[in-house]
Amino acid sequence: PLFLVGMLLIGASFTMRHVRFGGTGQALIVSVIFGFGLYYVRNFAQILGETGQIPILFAAYAPPLATILLAMGIILHMEDG
Length: 81
Prior knowledge:
Order of helices and strands: HHH
Strand content: under 5%
Largest sheet: none
């Protein structure tokens, strides 16, 4: 559920701009690429947790929390400039 919230915030952060400024298609493509990258990082952390190379709680909660914090940073940057 936390990763879903993070992905929702990532999508919202790239598509909240006004359409008249242009670049909506580019923002959509960047958002999709960013989503795939975060999904890859989450799966990589899961594999590291399953093999015991990092603690299981860290593997479970670090990627979603990092995604949420990154999305909030992008939203705040786009809102305030």
